[in-house]
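Notes from the 1:1 (GR / supervisor)

We went over the backlog. Supervisor wanted to see one worked example end to end before approving the batch request, so GR pasted a single chain during the call. The sequence is below; no edits were made to it. Supervisor asked that the structure be written out right there so they could see what the output format looks like.
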Amino acid sequence: MSNLVDITDSPLLALWGETVRGRRIQGERLTLAVVELAPNATVPEHRHEQEQLGMVIKGEVTFTVDGETRHLGPGGTWRCLSFAPHEVTAGPDGAVVLDLFTPIRDDWDDRAIVEGSTPRWPEAG
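Structure output shown during the call:
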């Protein structure tokens, strides 16, 4: 894999059904992901080994981490420590978020690739 990649050249993965999709770049110990949430999409409460940092790029989400809930727009961030329970619901226009995970999200390796779909971000210009 090249060290210089455009995120839109990465396969679009169905992360949580058809309503939550993402593209990722993997390092040796870190995953960078751009995740697209359809309008009102929900990622139910879950936990994972990976520590996660994220930020809203476009749209709005309601994020709950370890019992704390906040409504976040562009620039809003979250921190999920390893195995902390968290969930997110997108706003009525959906959202695009940036997530960083360590260690890598190799549990996404078996996710289906979404064919023929235009990414929500970055917008074609």
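Supervisor's comment: The longest strand covers residues 86-102.
Batch request approved.
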